[in-house]
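To: structure desk
From: M.T.
Subject: fold request, one chain
Message: Could you run this one when you get a chance? Sequence is below, nothing fancy, just the single chain.
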Amino acid sequence: MKNIKPVLLGLLGVVFIIAGAVTYAIIREFSALPLMLVWGGLLMVMIFLYANFTGVKGVISRRSTKFGANMLVMIGIFVVIVGMIGSMSMRYKYRVDLTETKRYSLSPQTVKILKSLDRDVDAIAFYRGDERTRQAMNDLLQEYSYHSPNFKYWFIDPDKRPIETAKYGVTSYRTTLIRSADREEIVGMESEEKVTNALLRVLKDDVKTIYFLKGHGEHGLDNAGKQGFKTVKEALQRDNFKVKDLLLAGNGEIPGDAAVLVVGGPRKDLLQSELDKLRRYVAKGGNVLILVDPGPFPYLTTYLKNYGFTVGNDIIIDKQGQLIGANYLTPVVMEYHKKHPLGAGFNLGTFFPVARSVDITENPATGSYNLAKTGSNSWSMSKGKLDEDNIKFDPAKDTRGPINIASVTTVKVSNKGDARPEKLKNESLAPGLDETTKALLKPPKEGLSRWGKLIVVGDSDFASNAHINLMGNKDYFLNLISWLTQETSLISVRRKQSWVTPMPLTNTESNFVFWMSVVIAPSFVLAFGAAVVARRRWAA
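Reply: Done. Structure tokens follow.
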């Protein structure tokens, strides 16, 4: 009974020491509480040792105690060795990809970029904790950080940290923000190509200029009202573009630093002299985005017809617009051309308030594609016969959907820079979409593309302040600008193939594997154990 109290004191001291260690592990700070617990526990243990010195000495002198102490020393040495190996592996990393297709390795282009990275780049991935694709993105970003100490990444769960997510301006899951200094790019897929291209864009030092045409009632860049383009301007500036307006009715030509000219919803038709300047700009390799609302624009539609565009004198009706709180004059688009970079991988819905049809005969040789179209329940009808009180489909006069609402074509640069569109169409144009993309990576000295590019959209209101932040409108508009400015595919990385290479076995080989792994090996272990037990019993 005399030794019970000291023993309890010793046990209580051990409990205090453990509690202090756990408290420090939780709060990560040597505050008063963990220090008091640890020092109090040590004091109790010392009192126990002093009060039971004779008993403790006897226990230490036992053979079993010496054997246990020796075992503890060996375990300690083993733990130290493992810790040293782990520390060295963290400091001196080396990874080997043994898959046949190098599925877990980055492309040589990406590795070269990362090796030359001379500034800090952060990748912030916004994924839920249970997101199925989170691990794939983690594996990909881990490869990037492995090749460059300047590339750092971390994950944020938008559900658990909504305030921090909102601070970065992220509004959707499965989004990764690539940033360096004050420049940012958004990636929406677990794709090496998209991550590397975003990385290149935030590292680029040159700034391209986007011009918006004015003088015809277009949406104003500084107009903060519902019909203004101020939100578009700010979004482009965040993407490292200079944004300026341009009055083309004077004597000057389109500036040579114009990466893209945007005709953003004119209310009056363009002059023939302006269209001539536009034609010369495209012939030199310029890039034009035309947003044309329903209405009579005879000069502009004739100009576009020379490039193969058919701009309908109609208006698109889509009663699905009511599903998003709009009216039947707001067509909803969910279908995009998946063989064109502007449609591949883009899965967001867009809507175009009061739109007209835009169509082109598709031809991969000229890079001509219909980019976006409405659903099968929509139709186009003549604007002149529109009766808002009686909207019905007339099979004799109307055209049943899907209705094309955005189209694109490319035009080879003329040597003289003064050729007529008809002549340009008959020359050797872009040999194909893939070749066009490759050619765009090598701009001439003037800074213009080898191929002039035109995109026509049958609506401009989708990019106005009132609608740009709804659904996928902003993403789609910025994608149009990015593709026109050659910013979509700075490098092309082929997707890694994932397959299992079969190993065919004969019956003899199959039987050998079965007997060796299922019968012989376990039987050998069982026999060895039985022999050890029998020997010990015989020795006893």
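Reply (cont.): The first strand starts at residue 121 and ends at 126. Let me know if you need anything else for the meeting.
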